[in-house]
Design goal:
The protein is of the alpha+beta class. Helices cover about 35% and strands about 20% of the residues. The protein has helices at about 20-35, 70-75, 145-150, 195, 215-235, 260-270, 300-310, 330-345, 380-400, 405-410, 415, 425-430, 430-455; strands at about 1-5, 10-15, 45, 50-55, 80-85, 95-105, 110-120, 135-140, 165-170, 250-255, 275-280, 290-295, 315, 315-320, 320-325. The N and C termini lie far apart (about 140 Å). The relative contact order is 0.09. It is an enzyme of class 5 (isomerase).
């Protein structure tokens, strides 16, 4: 005798212990049969201990009667509870033990009463429940659902923040006859207004941090791309993380190895003026790598070529065309500008002023056909040219100097070394005078040596 509970956390199959708790099993089976438990909430979850359900609305909610037995449903509120027999051999020894929640009878302290609420244990050896809850079954399938319920986030009253509910009940085997007046509904009833009023966060509700799989994957890829771009900016490969590829450059691939730059430019030039067309080749062998970059003067020509040339046959090869995603030339322009500024003794890691504009510029008049880069302020560009010109003039003056003043002070002028000719040599002491002084010193040392030998 088994019952399948379809819950929002997963399916749970319960085997009923009809030999040990026949009345408890009959009550549970018949309540399942009339769909009494449908949309009932799990309203008390204590981690690694147990969870409780079985009240269609939930205890304490407006309109709740804490649940009713099958006989109370059929015969009125006077039969809402019934006296249970707790079998002494049944213990809450293992996870997945199913038992009816009971209360002490007001008429007899030794009696315990049950209605519709039941408990499923989430841990082993819970002897605290022995004698307080009446065991009538055990879970045989659906322990993954028990794990999900066990991990549910709950408030301070142990109620899950996101609703966990019994969606449907299916009786797999029923050995009991139906009591008088029991009518099985032809289909699952819709939730009542009182039940709908107890919904907190529905299982189908999307939380802010959640979304559909496609949106979540897109957000993940965007975060990853931003992180990678920031890394490239930090190591100096990109001028800034938000740099975007140019919109006037096409990427063409699947080319025939024999296709040349001139052939490709001739074919694509019918859509507009081309600033550069380059088939990428192996540096060592010079062989074509079968892809190319084509830069147009304006974006409209680039877009037209993209739509018209997709899948066109060139040299027996059907090409593939896409918009370029490369920013390598932008990075080259930035690095060149940065290195130039460093050579002039100013600037730093941040690059030249004006890169924060984060836009591409268009080459005017066909100049610099092999490059495209970033926008600069005209004023900044003028200042750069003035600094470059001043730097070149300084270098020219340095080269025009024929000698160093320090060298002249140490060794004398060219005229001095040639024998004392010239005003500079005569004024400061010529090289010839120095030679005469050395000769006199040698003569004095020689006379001293002779006098020493005579003694």
């Amino acid at each position: 005798m088994s019952v399948l509970l379809e819950t929002s956390a997963g399916d749970i199959v319960i085997d009923l212990l009809v030999d040990y708790a026949p009345k408890l099993c009959e009550n549970f089976l018949k309540l399942c049969k009339i769909k009494y438990y449908n949309f009932s909430p799990v309203y008390n979850v204590q981690k690694n201990f147990s969870f409780q359900t079985g009240d269609p609305i939930g205890p304490g909610a407006p309109g709740s009667d804490d649940g009713s037995s099958i006989w109370g449903v059929l015969n009125g509120p006077s039969k809402r509870t019934f006296v249970v027999d707790i079998h002494p051999k049944l213990k809450h020894a293992e996870r997945g033990t199913v038992s009816m929640a009971t209360i002490v009878s007001p008429r007899d302290p030794d009696e315990r009463l049950a209605g519709s609420q039941f408990i499923i244990t989430l841990g082993d050896d819970l002897d605290y429940l022995d004698g307080k809850a009446a065991i009538f079954g055990k879970v045989v399938e659906g322990f993954d659902a028990l794990e999900k319920i066990n991990d549910a986030f709950c408030d301070d009253k142990h109620k899950p923040m996101v609703d966990i509910r019994i969606k449907h009940t299916v009786i797999l085997d029923d050995p009991y006859d139906d009591p008088p007046g029991l009518v099985e509904p032809p289909e699952s009833p819709v939730p009542t207004p009182a039940q709908l009023a107890t919904v907190r966060i529905g299982e189908d509700d999307k939380l802010d941090e959640e979304g559909d799989a496609e949106a979540t994957e897109k957000a993940r890829r965007e975060r990853e791309a931003r992180a990678q771009a920031l890394t490239l900016e930090m190591v100096g490969d990109l001028p800034f993380a938000e740099v975007k590829p140019p919109e006037n450059v096409l990427f063409v691939c699947k080319l025939n190895p024999v296709t040349t730059d001139e052939d490709l430019e001739l074919i694509f030039s019918r859509f507009g003026k081309i600033l550069s067309c380059e088939v990428i080749r192996d540096k060592r062998t010079g062989d074509s790598l079968q892809y190319a970059f084509i830069e147009y003067e304006d974006q409209a020509s680039c877009e037209q070529a993209y739509f018209k040339m997709q899948g066109v046959l060139i040299d027996d090869h059907r090409i593939h065309v896409d918009f370029s995603q490369s920013v390598s030339k932008l990075s080259d322009t930035w690095r060149t500008a940065t290195n130039s500024k460093r050579r002039h003794g100013s600037g730093g890691f941040g690059g030249v002023s004006g890169l924060e504009k984060r836009r591409q510029y268009k080459v005017e008049g066909g100049e610099r056909r092999d490059k495209y880069g970033m926008v600069y302020d005209e004023e900044e560009l003028r200042r750069r040219h003035e600094r470059d010109e001043k730097h070149r003039e300084d270098e020219k003056r340095d080269r025009s100097r024929s000698r160093s003043p320090q060298r002249d002070r140490d060794y004398g002028s060219r005229d001095d070394r040639r024998g004392g000719r010239g005003d500079r040599g005569r004024a400061s002491g010529s090289g010839r005078d120095r030679f005469d002084d050395r000769d006199r010193d040698r003569d004095r040392r020689g006379r001293r040596d002779d006098n020493y030998r005579r003694r």
